[in-house]
């Protein structure tokens, strides 16, 4: 296989969620609303992770798609990350993923075909791990490689976990560390050791399957996954959508090793800076928190963890179950009656 630094071929990463990067969101949200359909349970208006459409009283389908340019150099790893990231939105809605379609853009005349084979093999292995059947896909010839998947799952219409149901008294659990955007930008800049690349890759390729299965046993009020808009971006969607206040305890938020140092030395992704601006009016930071630490909380994540809002009295038990199953979960905040639609960082 040709030795290519895949990340050098990508101009700009995308966002992990249904809508897209913050600067495109406005356009996409202003789409003319088609016919009102009573079976549409979750649509465009709440910035949720996936669309949910009721088929019968017992079954709704969960639909999502994600694709982006390479964020790691190893094509097999890139395929795995893209798959884990795309599937995650089904888990975030409380759904069980069933089928997937590949989305491929590839410079077929200039890049070795075996690179594409490896990307597809990586994705295929993740689908297998998640028990998902690949049913097809589409490919185009494109200067810049891009890869992702459309994933369809099922959920009981009464068991949909949206990002709008958080209640005062809830505690917030996060199931993966943050800092992925700053680290993958550092990969592009050749600043990570092989060991460090391996670590951040393993965080991204970890499915949210186990976390979602554990969550299923609890009366979770809201959930989403932390992706392109970062912890505070997706948190703000939950706070605004649920019409509650949110407190995040910054010293409880797990951050990957060396993130602070690399951010200080300039590995700050454009998406992270955009996220920071995007939530400016929503987030109140401690006065003594510096700009770097504020940006880390806004860092654009790929294939991040679930952010779960659960009844305060159940939080410790859910946390214990998650940790017992090997999920790197932490309680990072709570939901309040006051400060509606705002995030207070402490
Ligand atoms: Co998504
Ligand atoms: Co999402």
What descriptors fit this protein?
alpha+beta, Phosphoribosyl-aminoimidazole Synthetase, Chain A, domain 2, 60s Ribosomal Protein L30, Chain: A, seven-stranded mixed β-sheet, binds cobalt (II) ion
In brief, what are we looking at here?
This protein has 11 helices and 13 strands.
Report on this structure.
The chain is of the alpha+beta class. It has two domains: 6-159, PurM-like, N-terminal domain (60s Ribosomal Protein L30, Chain: A); 171-345, Phosphoribosyl-aminoimidazole Synthetase, Chain A, domain 2 (Alpha-Beta Complex). Helices cover 34% and strands 23% of the residues. It has eleven helices and 13 strands. It has helices spanning 22-29, 75-92, 113-129, 180-188, 194-205, 209-215, 230-242, 259-264, 270-278, 291-297, 315-324, and strands spanning 40-42, 51-54, 60-68, 96-106, 133-141, 146-155, 170-174, 220-225, 245-248, 283-284, 306-311, 330-336, 343-345. The strands form two sheets. A seven-stranded mixed beta sheet has the order 8-11-7-12-9-13-10, with helices on both faces. A six-stranded mixed beta sheet has the order 1-2-3-6-4-5, covered by helices on one side. Helix 2 (75-92) runs parallel beside helix 3 (113-129) and helix 4 crosses helix 5 (194-205). The longest helix has 18 residues, at 75-92. The radius of gyration is 19 Å and the shape is globular. The termini are far apart. The mean pLDDT is 94. The structure holds cobalt (II) ion (2 copies). One cobalt (II) ion binds next to helix 2 and strand 8.
Heteromolecules bound = cobalt (II) ion
Based on CA atoms alone, the radius of gyration comes out at 19 Å
* Class derived from helix and strand content: alpha+beta
Spans where pLDDT lies below 50 across 5 or more residues: none
Report mean pLDDT, rounded to a whole number: 94
Q: In the CATH hierarchy, what is the class of the largest domain?
A: Alpha Beta
What fold name stands as the CATH topology of the largest domain? Answer: Phosphoribosyl-aminoimidazole Synthetase, Chain A, domain 2
């Amino acid at each position: 296989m040709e030795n290519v630094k895949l990340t050098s071929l990508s101009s700009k990463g995308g966002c992990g969620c249904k809508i897209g990067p913050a600067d495109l969101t406005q356009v996409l949200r202003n789409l003319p609303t088609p016919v009102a359909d009573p079976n549409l349970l979750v649509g465009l208006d709440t910035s949720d992770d996936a669309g949910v459409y009721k088929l019968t009283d017992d079954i709704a389908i969960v639909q999502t798609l994600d694709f982006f340019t390479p964020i790691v150099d190893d094509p097999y790893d890139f395929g795995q990350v893209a798959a884990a990231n795309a599937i995650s939105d089904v888990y975030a809605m409380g759904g069980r993923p069933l089928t997937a379609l590949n989305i491929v853009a590839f410079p077929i005349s200039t890049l070795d075909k075996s690179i594409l084979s490896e990307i597809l093999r990586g994705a295929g292995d993740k689908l297998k791990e998640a028990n998902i059947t690949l049913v097809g896909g589409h490919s185009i010839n494109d200067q810049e490689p891009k890869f992702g998947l459309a994933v369809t799952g099922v959920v009981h219409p009464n068991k949909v976990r949206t990002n709008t149901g958080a209640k005062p008294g809830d505690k917030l659990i996060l199931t993966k560390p943050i800092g992925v955007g700053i680290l993958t930008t550092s990969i592009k800049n050749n600043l990570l050791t092989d060991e460090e690349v391996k670590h951040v890759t393993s965080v991204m390729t970890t499915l949210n399957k186990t976390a979602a299965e554990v969550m299923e046993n609890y009366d979770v009020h809201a959930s989403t996954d932390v992706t392109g808009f970062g912890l505070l971006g997706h948190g703000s969607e939950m706070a605004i959508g649920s019409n509650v206040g949110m407190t995040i305890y910054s010293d409880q938020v797990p951050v990957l090793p060396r993130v602070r140092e690399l951010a200080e030395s300039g590995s700050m992704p454009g998406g992270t800076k955009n996220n920071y601006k995007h939530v400016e009016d929503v987030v109140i930071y401690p006065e003594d928190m510096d700009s770097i630490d504020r940006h880390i909380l806004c860092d654009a994540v790929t294939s991040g963890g679930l952010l779960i809002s659960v009844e305060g009295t159940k939080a410790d038990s859910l946390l214990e179950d998650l940790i017992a199953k090997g999920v790197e979960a932490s309680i990072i905040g709570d939901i309040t009656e006051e400060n509606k639609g705002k995030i207070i960082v402490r």
